[in-house]
Amino acid sequence: MKKDQMYPGRRAMLRLAACLGAATAVRFLGPDAAQTPGRYPSGPPPAAGPQAGAPARFSAYRLRPMTAYTPPKFRPARPPVRRRPFLRMGGIGRSMVLTFDDGPDPRYTPDILRTLRRYDVRAIFFVCGGMAVENRDLLREMAEDGHVVGNHTWSHPLIPRLSPDRIRAELGRTSDVVERTIGHAPDWYRAPYGAWNRRSFEIGAELGMEPLAWTLDTLDWREPGTAAIIRRVRRGAGPGVVVLSHDAGGNRRQSVEALRTYLPELLDAGYRITAPSTALRG
Q: What's the pLDDT score for residue 65?
């Protein structure tokens, strides 16, 4: 027998070893057994959780979310720190924005909401936290009607006289009430009396809000008479104009009555009344 020839028995043993090695490689390099159809003739191995042999039904276990793998809650990027508030809304064509401050007030806010609903228009309500916490039902009604709920501080103070911590508390507490009530925090805030300062812009941005002032003041807070309020809106109307009115902070019956007149007039003149969003800045 030549030196390099093998005995038949030895060749058989080598073939058997090669077959065993190939099978092992397929086992470790092949697809996951639990994902391979037909891998287990009598069904897959028992899964974690309820007994695998139990009747198939939706159980509390199966419906309970896997919180360990829940993605983090989305938080939008902070807006930039502004040096001045927005005075009007750009890029919205022949549109105007109606805003109402100091509420919600159960004496006047419901009437304003009914008028807006009648003409199917949206507005923004800058609410004070001290009023909002007592009238959460009106906050929910605003949100359900598609209006924007903005932040007007907690107690309507003069912002420049406050420390940074007090500004943060005034804005933060109000945002918390709004978020707990309607499910999201305000995107816009307005300083009482239109009195802003650098700290308020910084803290507003920290809380995810943009500052919005106004173009046209109806002066309804002076209670000048319904006709006077209507005249001011007629004269000041224009594309991108932000109108300031009030639904609280005093006797606002004139504001309610004036809205019933000038709102349909604006619509008849071809204006679209819209609520501001963070996409409508100019």
A: 36
pLDDT of residue 76: 63
Token pair in block for residue 129: 């936290």
Token pair recorded at residue 185? 């925090």
Any idea which residues carry the catalytic annotation?
A: 101, 246
| Cβ contact 166:129 at 8 Å | no
Q: Tell me the C-alpha distance between 224 and 245, whole Å.
A: 13
Residue 105 has pLDDT above 90, yes or no: yes
At residue 91, the pLDDT reads: 74
- Provide the whole-model pTM: 0.73
